[in-house]
Write a structure and sequence with these properties.
Residues 201-210 have a biased composition (Low complexity). This protein is an alpha+beta fold. It contains 12 helices and 15 strands. The radius of gyration is 20 Å and the shape is globular.
Length: 400
């Protein structure tokens, strides 16, 4: 079911009716509780949203609120952050985690989103599937992630940090793309100044931009057919090392095909519990990506066996030539993805009997029993707010 467009609202291709309530932008409607995660410039709070009511008080809704200290960001990135936060609040897709409320107080930006209690796919693997996931589970997760990527790409966005830590799982098996903190618009009328932040796992350095034709261009169907619009290619050095495309590392102009490379690495991550080279220091990871042939799927030797068809999908995504990589829509048309199970399959196969997220993290020593992460990222990463550490967890068969 499509949604009628409101006057003055940005037109999103392929949007659907959002079944979840939007929150308000009024800070008095929120109660922030204990911190549940930390980033280099932000803190995430377990929070309650109190829907405004003209009569009796309504039941508060649990949510997550991210507080970003704008003083710690370079000036040129502030416009991008506030503008794209607004744009992502307008996105409506079942596989993209939506911004549901935002406001500023002085130099602090608050962003409210749904609280995903099942956590991330990375957290699921770290807790129960350190050696990787079965092919049917991988396919169910990857297809949903690809649907979200297709939606972003058709609407002129590059996610730029596609990995298991940024795939969130809902109670019903829905997989959502989260952590849009480094997503960027490539539309010609949406200026996107590049940022200059750096952390131990997610890099972002201003290199400038150049114009070009993005791989994510094309027509799409929302309320009718929309015509492709000019794109601006990016040169920003952004992402998490193990998942970064070669052209991003080389600071060459790139487009949505860089996300497809990351998607290929994500696929490998799901089969072995960690990404290739993820146990190496960041500088070594980048060097390996540039100097070694693209990694391939090992059909045997791990916890599960995999089909040549799955290996072929990954090889297509990891083509060194960005122009040779298929688009998200083209991948979804592949026979391998058409065989994907419904999302409810995840409930019975991997989510059943899974303890609450907070309990899982406490068992792993990442919490203090009150929901607060001891390290700078435990629950934060599991809710899709964090950057991960770039060093995959769990045992696998990668050479490094």
């Amino acid at each position: 079911m499509t949604t009628p467009w409101k006057k003055g609202e940005r037109r999103w291709i392929g949007e659907v009716q959002d079944q979840w309530v939007m929150y308000s932008d009024n800070p008095t409607d929120y109660t922030l509780h204990a911190p549940i995660g930390y980033g280099s410039t932000s803190v995430v709070y377990l929070s309650s949203y109190h829907p405004p009511s003209s009569s009796s008080p309504s039941q508060p809704l649990a949510c997550a609120v991210k507080l970003i200290n704008l003083d710690l960001l370079p000036p040129q990135s502030l416009h991008q952050l506030t503008q794209e936060t607004r744009l992502m609040s307008l996105s409506k897709h079942p596989n993209v985690l939506r911004v549901r409320g935002s406001w500023t107080e002085g130099s602090r930006l608050y962003i409210a989103m749904r609280l995903m209690r099942k956590g991330s796919v990375a957290d699921l693997m770290a807790y129960r599937y350190q050696g990787g996931l079965a092919e049917d589970v991988c396919r169910c997760i990857l297809k949903q992630a690809l649907e979200g990527l297709k939606y972003l790409h058709v609407n002129g966005f590059i996610h730029r940090d596609v990995k298991a830590a940024n795939l969130l799982i809902d109670d019903d098996g829905t997989v959502l793309l989260g952590d849009l903190g480094v997503a960027v618009s490539t539309l010609d009328d949406v200026p996107s100044p590049t940022s200059t932040t750096f952390s131990s796992s997610t890099f972002s350095t201003s290199i400038g931009t150049s114009t070009g034709t993005g791989a994510g261009t094309g027509t799409g169907t929302g309320n009718g057919t929309a015509t492709a619009r000019p794109r601006i290619r990016k040169r920003s050095f952004v992402g998490t090392p193990s998942w970064m495309a070669p052209e991003v590392i080389r600071r060459q102009a790139y487009d949505s095909s860089a996300d497809i490379w990351s998607f290929g690495i994500l696929s490998l991550e799901l089969t072995r519990g960690r990404a290739p080279y993820s146990r190496l220091p960041p500088s070594r990871i980048l060097s390996q990506i540039l100097t070694l042939p693209p990694p391939t799927l090992l059909l045997t030797g791990g916890v599960y066996t995999y089909t040549p068809q799955f290996a072929d999908i990954i090889s297509l995504c990891l083509s060194p030539d960005p122009g040779a990589r298929p688009g998200a829509g083209e991948l979804l048309d592949k026979a391998w993805f058409r065989q994907a199970r419904k999302k409810a399959f995840l409930v019975g196969s991997v989510l059943q009997g899974l303890p609450p997220l907070e309990e899982r993290l406490v068992r792993r020593g990442e919490g203090d029993g009150g929901g607060r992460a001891r390290g700078r990222g435990g629950i934060l990463r599991s809710l899709g707010w964090g950057r991960g550490r770039g060093r995959g967890r769990g045992r696998g068969v990668w050479g490094a």
